[in-house]
Amino acid sequence: MNPLAARAEPERMLRLYLTDHFAGATGGSELARRLARTHRNGPYGRELDTFAHDVARDRETLRTLMASLDITPQRAKVAAAWTAERVGRLKPNGRIVRRSPLSNVLELEAMRMGVEGKASCWRALRMLADNDDRLPADELDSLIDRAEDQSSFLERLRVRMAAGAFGPEPAAGDVRRTAHRPSPA
Question: Among 64, 72, 102, 177, which residue carries the largest CB count within 10 Å?
């Protein structure tokens, strides 16, 4: 195989990987904003607003990291992700006029999956940072930590919302056990 082609293939894979993640970050940022708006007057409004700002900031950080690698977002992918987030709002959740409590649960689950994907992206870039000076290892370590904190926050909130939708809300001490209860053997 041609040595130039051999080096170009990993670069191409990284380009595809990051443009896909950037598109996902666009959809995630939109969903985080929507969650914050929906719950702005509720008990989690302030935390969700902070979360939405952090998600938007993470998206911009990804854009900056991509630029340092000479990778630009693909408009078609970004537009598709933005559209998919909007279409996802149309899901039937048992209510026509009012927002269903199930919407909260499903949106938090989708958001948590997105945050887990983002953490995976940060970890992949962190691995590359050991051999690529264009990637800031310390910043990636911080981004990984923040994504883990975001995931924990979303899981705690999801458990509370699920309990509210499906039954009584668990006591504060029960949230962790409920969220991580092992399945029967």
Answer: 102
C-alpha 73: how far from chain center = 17
State the Cα angle at 118 between 10 and 182, rounded to 5°.
120
Residue 71 CB neighbour total at 10 angstroms: 19
Q: Please report where in the chains the tokens 């935390």 appear, as a residue.
A: 47
Which of the four pLDDT bands, split at 50, 70 and 90, describes residue 63? Answer: very high
Give me the residue label for tokens 């969903």.
31
Cα–Cα distance for residue pair 69/129, rounded to 1 Å: 11
- Contact predicate 57/6, CB 8 Å: no
Distance CA 59, CA 130 (A): 22
pTM above 0.85, yes or no: no
Report the pLDDT value the prediction gives residue 72, as an integer from 0 to 100: 87
Nearest CA to 14 among 76, 71, 67, 68?
A: 71
Helix axes 45-68, 137-166, angle to 10 degrees: 150
Q: Give 106-165 as a DSSP string.
A: HHHHHHHHHHHHHHHHHHHHHHHHTT-TTS-HHHHHHHHHHHHHHHHHHHHHHHHHHHHH
CA distances from 115 to 131, 144, 174 (A): 25, 10, 24
